[in-house]
Write a structure and sequence with these properties.
Layout: H1 9-21, H2 23-34, E1 43-48, E2 53-58, E3 61-62, H3 64-68, H4 73-76, E4 80-85, E5 94-97, H5 98-114, E6 122-126, H6 131-143, E7 146-149, H7 156-166, E8 170-174, E9 177-179, E10 182-184, H8 186-194, E11 202-206, E12 220-222, H9 223-229, E13 239-240, E14 244-250, E15 258-263, H10 265-278, E16 286-289, H11 296-308, E17 312-316, H12 327-335, E18 339-342, H13 344-351, H14 356-359, E19 368-372, H15 378-388, E20 395-398, E21 432-435, E22 441-442, E23 447-453, E24 463-464, H16 468-475, E25 483-491, E26 497-502, E27 506-509, E28 512-515, H17 516-524, E29 529-539, E30 543-552, H18 554-557, H19 561-575, E31 584-587, H20 601-608, H21 625-632
Parallel strand pairs: 4-17, 6-7, 6-8, 7-14, 8-11, 11-12, 16-17, 16-18, 18-19, 19-20, 30-31
Antiparallel strand pairs: 1-2, 3-13, 4-5, 9-10, 14-15, 15-24, 21-22, 21-23, 23-25, 25-26, 27-28, 29-30
The protein binds 5'-O-[(S)-butoxy(hydroxy)phosphoryl]adenosine.
5'-O-[(S)-butoxy(hydroxy)phosphoryl]adenosine is lined by residues 250, 295-297, 372-375, 397-402, 423, 485-487, 499, 502, 508, 513.
Length: 640
Amino acid sequence: MSNYHIKNLEEYYQVYRKSVRNPELFWEEVAEEHFVWKKRWDRVLDYDFSKPEVKWFEGAQLNITENCIDRHLPSKADKTAIIFEPNNPDEPALHISYSELHERVCKFANVLKSKGIGKGDRVCIYLPMIPELAVALLACARIGAVHSVVFAGFSATALATRINDCEAKMVITADGSFRGNKTIDLKGIVDEALTTCGSVTTVLVAKRIDTEILMEEGRDAWLAPLLETAESDCPAEIMEAEDPLFILYTSGSTGSPKGMLHTTAGYMVYTAYTFKNVFNYKDGDIYWCTADIGWITGHSYIVYGPLANGATTVMFEGVPSYPDYGRFWEVVQKHKITQFYTAPTAIRALAKENLEFVNSYDLSSLKVLGTVGEPINEEAWHWYNDNVGKKKAPIVDTWWQTETGGMMISPIPFATPTKPTYATLPLPGVQLALMDEQGNEVVGNQVDGRLCVKFPWPSMARTIWGNHQRYKDTYFSAFDNAYFTGDGALRDEVGYYRITGRVDDVIIVSGHNLGTAPIEDAINEHPAVAESAIVGVPHDIKGNALYGYVILKETGEGRNHDNLRKEINQIITEHIGPIAKLDIIQFTPGLPKTRSGKIMRRILRKIAHNELDNLGDISTLLNPDIVEAIIRERMTPSVP
Ligand code: WT7
């Protein structure tokens, strides 16, 4: 189909213009030609951003697993759907064919049913990157259950918050997980979380590390024996286009994590389309995305997008540094990877190591390289381009979000000339706008502003689970008739976009989206802490590091600061997870506040960045003197 595999820039503009002139016709053609529907839609799009309400392919009926699996069986039954590459390179990789995947998903779906799970029920999945994870997602989708994957690096408290928010009936987990040379006691974390979760009646446990664990009678069950006796066929539940497919939590700048709800038909059409086009996917390619399925990247571009195209997708259980820094490249060589998709933070970490780790492997299979999750700096871009892609594999710098479901801005490889640090052009169907602070659209090129999307696209999140008002307030209130992304961006002289970063209180650390509020709430739980504020500071590898300003209570003042720092990070680890630990903690007698009591993070950010000569007007502060005191005690970021 002509919309696929855009071959040059001119064709991109043609396709793009068509998608803007008549979005309904554009997406209808994609939907018609590439998927199986049990019933055709009555209407392609119905929307009202003021509510906000968005419906794609209303009236259509389908099941996404039939599109991701069954549809490929006549021609690709023996083709590998998933390659599982274990943490330990000495353990053999596992190749799961489309027919095996069909059987695994059906069996798993029948186990879910036997435990009372049905259409609309929420199932929380807390698993490491093992095949059961992808199979669990698809098994839920097979029967219309709504999966809510929680990244298996989150703590018991964070897991419990998410389980309670969506009132999951079941948790699927493992006895433990491997991570480099460590093992993690996942089941113990689940047990701890479940002491505060009333909705969960069943816990299914996959065996991975083979260790003794506690099984609670009546609640917990090993997965393997149930799968063994389950029927190997499970009819796919008929789903309406707008039926929920999954919930995935993401941090907000304030409050609890937001359960972004994605629905069935639009999400499928969009992730499949973007996967094929942005990765220039062709039959026979071996595609590898290094993300964890616990994040949206894994949902859309390890599981649904690739499988909807009948592709071979790699699931990697390990980490880039184990057993050494050559691990990624060893896997590329071993499986002859054609598309490789990773995060700037991983690239920066690997670029610090000896080039021999890259040069010892044959990377000639690589055709397209991708990055996602945060802005990629110029140096990292060149390192990736020169040493991994050997200047022959275009880099697709893909900008998108948990909320957008799929990629929004990205070069089309071999068509869009790439430019370091630029995500370049909007994908077909994506209508962007830059807004100024007064809410007016900034037109023309060589301008900057707040990045918004003016028109619906099929994979956008439809609501925040259980809180539609918050969805409206967060995304549709800053600007009239537009979705606000939370990012700032600039548009260059040819219309290329460069994302400049978050304009709200979300900080991206190693590609993980962290809200300041939940971290501050955790810090404030420490009995010696009165108040705290955190800001991001630039970091060579992680993109941003976390700099915390902490006011101690009188009881804390005499205490050893290093011990307090350890305790504060311990609390953060318990409440959120190790990814949210602070790199720098400065104890301070106060925080700069406005007269209405709002913390002036702008000033704290400047001090942390050591931009002391343009702090702006501080005379309106409630306590201007505190700024001097904070500067005096400023900590030099000596983070690793
Ligand atoms: C935020 C969304 C999309 C999957 C992973 C992150 C930042 C994402 C890029 C990019 C610059 C990027 C934005 C965005 N971001 N991709 N290519 N260049 N920034 O999903 O956790 O929902 O985070 O990540 O700030 O808003 P997420």
